Amino acid sequence: MTLTLTDLTYDSNQLIAGIRQEGGTVDKYGSFMDQTRNVDVLINGKKLLYDTSISTNPDDKDTALIYLSKGAMKQQIPDQFDLTLKTYANGVKEPFVFKVQVSKLGTLLSLKPGVSKKNSNFSYTVTSFELTPLTMSLQVSFKGTAPAAAKSKANPERMLYDLVDEKGNVSSPWGKPFEKVKTSGTEEQNYGAFPAVPKTISVKPFTYAKDASGKILKDKQGQWAKTYYKDLETKITVK
Fold first, then answer.
1. What is each CA distance from 23 to 27, 28, 31, 52, 62, in whole angstroms?
2. pLDDT tens sequence across 155-175
3. What global pTM score does this model have?
C-alpha cells in the first residue's frame, strides 16, 4: 500500500492535509483513519496537541482530508516550520511518515473594529477580526452573564457568535459550546472562511439551549437549537 500526501495548507487557525491511498489490502480511510490516535503531528520535532477531524469524498474513498484545528493548539507555532505527519493503518505495523517544510498562508483581511454592544446582563467588544483563504478568527472582550437560551434549564450559558456576510453566508464557531463558562475575559472564536472577502460582517451573538443534564437540545431540523440576541447584534463594515 502507498500513501501520498497530495495537499497541505496551513494558517494560524487550521492545518489541512490531503492524503491518497493506492493499493494495499487494509480498509479504506472510512475505517482506518477515523480516530485521533491514527495521526501524529510534530512541529520542528515536537508533538502537537490538536483538535482533529477526518473526512472522505463519497465519490473517491481512496482520498481523505485531515483537519487539525486550533481549538487545542496550545503551542506557539512559527510562520515557517518543519512538519512531520505520521499516519497509521490497520494491519500495517509501522506508521507512514511524511516530512515537509510549511509556510503559513497570508492574511486576506485584518481588522480592529472596536465595536461594542451591551444589554442589562452582558456586554462585549469586537477587538479584532482576521480572514485567510482557509479560516476566520474573531476576538472579543466580554463581561457579564449571558442569559439562558429559550427552554434551556442550564444557566449561565456560554455566549457564542455567528458571522454573516452581506450575501447571507453564515459561519458558526468551532467547538466552543463545551468549554467552561466565564463571566469576563477575552477570547478568540474560530470559523471556516467566507467564500470571498466580505463587504460587511454581521456579528450575531447566540447561546445553545440545554436540558438539565447539559445536553444540547435540537430544533425541528435536527440541528442544535440556538437563541439569538438581536439587541446584541452588530455589523462591521469592511473598508
1. 11, 10, 16, 25, 9
2. 667 899 999 999 999 999 986
3. 0.80
